[in-house]
Amino acid sequence: MKIGILEPGFAPEELRDEFKSYPKMLEKLLGDVDPGLEFETWTVLEDEFPDSIADADGWVVMGSKHGVYENAPWMIRLQDFLREAVGAGQPVFGICFGHQILATALGGKVVKSDKGWGVGVHAYDVDASNADWLADSPSTLRINAFHQDQVVEIPEGATVWASSDFCPYAGLQYGANAASIQPHPEFMRPYEQALLESRHDLIPEDVHKAAMKSLETPISSPDFAKSIVKFMTRQRVRNAA
C-alpha cells in the first residue's frame, strides 16, 4: 500500500539535522508496524500537491505551526483535496493540524483555545464503540501533544473516539474511511523534549515544567501505530472488495 503524506509544516530549523521531518517520523512509526508500506510526501505548505487523489492509496495529513483559520490559499486547496479523497472512499487520517483541517473541511470549527498550551504527554479516554480499527486499543492512550488550537465544533455525523478534559474532541471519525487525532503519535520522547526546550520562551513556566515532568510517562504511540495501519489498510481492503 502506498500512503501519501501531506506536509503542511516543518520541524523547527534548529532541530532538523537531528530529527529530519514530520513525514520521516511517520514513516518510521508506521514502517515499524508494516515494512511493506510505501510512502511519498507532498509539501502542501509550499503548494506542492498530488496531481490526483489516485496518486496514493490513502492519505495522512501532518502537523503545522499554522492555524487553519488563517485560510491561506494552500489550506483552502488542501480542504478541497481532503473532501475529494474522503468522498471517494479513500482512507484519510489527520494528525494535529491534520486533525483540525480535516474537521474544518468537513464542516467543523477550530479556534485558538482559551485553555492554552497542550504539551507533553496527555492521556485520552478511548471509545471504540464506533471504531472497530481501535478494537485492540487500551481504554486510555498516552501520546505526546503540542498544540494551542482545538476543534470546538465537530462536523455533522462525526463521532468522538478520543477525549480528555483538556481536549474533548481529541479523536474524531467520519464514517468508515476518515479519522484523526489531535496529539502527535509520531513524536517520540527525544523530539518532544527537544521541542519543549526550543519553545520554552513561548510556554508558561508552570505548564512547561509539568510537560517536562510528564515525559517520564511511557507513551502509547508504538501500539497506537498498529491501529493507524489497521485503519489505513482495512479501508483499502474494503474498497478492493
TrEMBL record:
PROSITE patterns per record: GATASE_TYPE_1
InterPro entries: ChyE-like, Class_I_gatase-like, GATASE
Limits of the Glutamine amidotransferase domain: 19-189
Gene3D superfamilies to which the protein is assigned, alphabetical: 3.40.50.880
PANTHER family registered for this protein in UniProt: GLUTAMINE AMIDOTRANSFERASE YLR126C-RELATED (PTHR42695:SF5)
Protein name: GMP synthase
Species of origin: Thalassospira povalilytica
Lineage: Bacteria, Pseudomonadati, Pseudomonadota, Alphaproteobacteria, Rhodospirillales
